[in-house]
Design brief:
Elements: H1 3-16, E1 27-30, E2 34-40, H2 49-54, H3 62-70, H4 80-90, E3 97-101, E4 104-110, H5 122-133, H6 142-149, H7 153-165, E5 169-172, E6 182-185
Antiparallel strand pairs: 1-2, 2-4, 3-4, 5-6
Helix pairs in contact: 1-3, 1-4, 6-7
Length: 189
């Protein structure tokens, strides 16, 4: 289990929780294949999951944040997600998944090791190149990739699934079924 990643996710859940939501606790759920940490409240207004990945941080609870910083539970503002990624990769696990769901924010840490994947095919390489070009624009959707590469959305989704499983790209959306979900390069790609 990547203890450093779990510690970071719990610290973030406590520091960034929306405590105005009564009866909405921070929840930690352990499953055979993953750990889910839910924090009440969505991201602070103006923040996106892409911002978190880029190291941008906006404190919701300044006093709690200051106390955690003084206790050395926070090393540097905005660096927690990068430490979670590093801890997971060190153990051969995929990057944690960040999601906004209904009225809470979830971090899912997979406990399944990343398997070695075959080399990327030409279309997958084109997807990576296109996402690299579109990184500042917030990535691309399945429809964008389908249109640009002249392939059916279903064919694109198959390639995207392989790239997600290989840890080459990440999905950013409100849920796994968000029709407006976009894809970005994973850090280090």
């Amino acid at each position: 289990m990547p203890l450093e990643a779990v510690r970071e996710a719990l610290t973030n859940a406590i520091v960034h929780a929306d405590y105005s939501q009564t009866g909405a606790p921070i929840r930690v759920a352990f499953f055979d294949d993953r750990i889910e940490i839910d924090s009440p409240g969505l991201l602070v207004a103006g923040m996106t999951i892409g911002d978190i990945r880029a190291g941008v941080s906006k404190l919701r609870n300044r006093v709690i944040g200051r106390v955690f910083k003084e206790l050395d539970l926070i090393e540097q503002w905005g660096s927690g997600f990068q430490r979670m990624i590093a801890a997971c990769r060190e153990m051969g696990l995929p990057e944690p998944v960040l999601e906004e769901q209904a009225f809470h924010f979830r971090v899912t840490i997979s406990l399944k090791r990343v398997a070695e994947h075959p080399k990327m095919d030409a279309t997958e390489q084109k997807i990576i190149e296109f996402l690299r070009e579109r990184e500042v624009d917030g990535g691309a959707s399945t429809q964008d990739l389908s249109r640009i590469l002249g392939m059916t959305p279903r064919s694109i989704r198959t390639r995207i699934a392989r790239l997600l499983n290989a840890g080459k790209i990440v999905a950013v959306g409100k849920s796994a079924y968000d029709p407006k979900k976009r894809y970005l390069l994973a850090n280090g790609e």
